[in-house]
């Protein structure tokens, strides 16, 4: 059988590229998700996931993550976990629990500590500086504090036909303590069924939670739509519905993969993502909304990649926001 991986944002590239090579050799979909997401969580320059993620309004880092196995529908999730190096690994462990498989706040942190998951300070000097700058900016310009909510979400298919999805996020920058986004919520932030496919979301959790967009995308693939048609239909219809009923829609994007290794992506903003399959090497793509509820997709250029790298690695003393 074939294999594949798709993931939100450029930050997923190194993990997807590495784990797609493992999948090619017969590696496990679950392991590929945990290892690839750990790589994003561990990298300090990715400011919306794991170590170096952006703090809440009290300058505390509260992290959300989830793991779902598409063979048996096991789901594990954590929300508002603190001081824990790899929330995705905790979510994976929780997915094996018959009860108590979604833990929040101090309960999630306590579980991780007691189960021997590595504990560490997760806030970096860079994240603290961004928090200070954001606070100054909000006060000076009387702005809404909320900004930035880039979840890493990945779907994986292995050669045995097993499919797994995982997410990890520090959620909304400057969120209230205790705020939880879509990323640990089944159906909304992620969903997978190995007999059909999987999907995962990134964007403004408060709006993503108004729909069950990951579940809906999988359901439409189950009715025979191609991944691209399914996700276009779900994302653009929901975007229009939110605008009609509420007057606005936050930024959101979904990626999906079916159990034949075909993928799709739709977005209401410019968005980067990564995909790798048996026939397509790991690649970073850019997507944007196209005409008539379709999505325009292109391979990211060398200039785009260079500008991205310079942006995320700006020297601390030169940070302006
Ligand atoms: N999509 C991540 C969040 O809103 O928390």
What profile does the largest beta sheet have?
Answer: 9 strands, mixed
CATH architectural category: 4-Layer Sandwich
Name the hetero compounds present: glycine
CATH topology: Glutamine Phosphoribosylpyrophosphate, subunit 1, domain 1
Protein name: N(4)-(Beta-N-acetylglucosaminyl)-L-asparaginase
Site (Cleavage): 150-151
Organism: Vagococcus allomyrinae
Active site: 151 (nucleophile)
Structure explained in plain terms:
- The protein is of the alpha+beta class and 321 residues long.
- It has a single domain (4-318), classed as Glutamine Phosphoribosylpyrophosphate, subunit 1, domain 1 (4-Layer Sandwich).
- Helix content is 33%, strand content 24%.
- The chain has 9 helices and 13 strands.
- It has helices at residues 13-24, 29-42, 87-94, 105-114, 125-141, 205-208, 213-222, 227-246, 302-312; strands at 4-8, 63-69, 75-81, 102-104, 152-157, 163-169, 190-193, 197-203, 252-258, 263-267, 271-277, 283-289, 295-299.
- The strands form 2 sheets. It has a 9-stranded mixed beta sheet with strand order 4-3-2-6-5-1-11-12-13.
- β12 (283-289) and β13 (295-299) form a beta hairpin.
- α7 (213-222) packs across α8.
- The longest helix has 20 residues, at 227-246.
- The model has no long low-confidence stretch (mean pLDDT 96).
- The chain binds glycine.
- Residues 149, 151, 169, 171-172, 181-183, 202-205 line the site of glycine.
- Glycine (GLY) is lined by residues 149, 151, 169, 171-172, 181-183, 202-205.
């Amino acid at each position: 059988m074939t294999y594949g991986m798709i993931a939100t944002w450029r930050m997923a590239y190194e993990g997807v590229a590495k784990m797609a090579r493992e999948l090619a050799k017969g590696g496990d979909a679950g392991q590929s998700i945990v290892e690839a997401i750990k790589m994003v969580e561990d990298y300090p320059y990715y400011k919306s996931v794991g170590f170096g993620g952006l703090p809440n309004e009290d300058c505390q880092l509260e992290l959300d993550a989830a793991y779902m196995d598409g063979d048996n529908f096991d789901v594990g999730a954590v929300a508002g976990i603190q001081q824990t190096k790899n929330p995705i690994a905790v979510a994976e462990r929780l997915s094996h629990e018959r009860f108590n498989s979604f833990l929040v706040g101090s309960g999630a942190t306590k579980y991780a500590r007691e189960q021997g998951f590595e504990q560490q300070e997760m806030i970096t000097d860079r994240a603290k500086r961004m928090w200070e700058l954001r606070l100054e900016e909000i006060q000076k310009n009387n702005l809404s504090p909320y900004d930035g909510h880039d979840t890493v979400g990945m779907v994986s298919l292995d050669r045995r036909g097993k499919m797994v999805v995982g997410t990890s996020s520090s959620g909304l920058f400057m969120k209230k303590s205790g705020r939880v986004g879509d990323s640990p919520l089944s159906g909304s932030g992620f969903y997978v069924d190995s007999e059909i496919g999987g999907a995962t979301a990134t964007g403004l959790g408060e709006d993503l939670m108004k729909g069950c967009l990951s579940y809906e995308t999988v359901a439409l693939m189950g009715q025979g739509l191609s991944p691209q048609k399914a996700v276009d239909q779900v994302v653009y219809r929901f975007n229009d519905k939110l605008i009609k009923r509420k007057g606005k829609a936050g930024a959101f994007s979904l990626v999906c993969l079916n159990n034949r290794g075909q993928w799709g992506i739709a977005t209401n903003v410019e968005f980067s993502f990564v995909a790798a399959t048996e026939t397509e090497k790991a690649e970073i793509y850019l997507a944007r909304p196209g005409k008539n509820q379709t999505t325009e997709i292109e391979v990211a250029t060398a200039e785009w990649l260079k500008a991205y790298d310079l942006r995320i690695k700006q020297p601390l003393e030169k940070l302006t926001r």
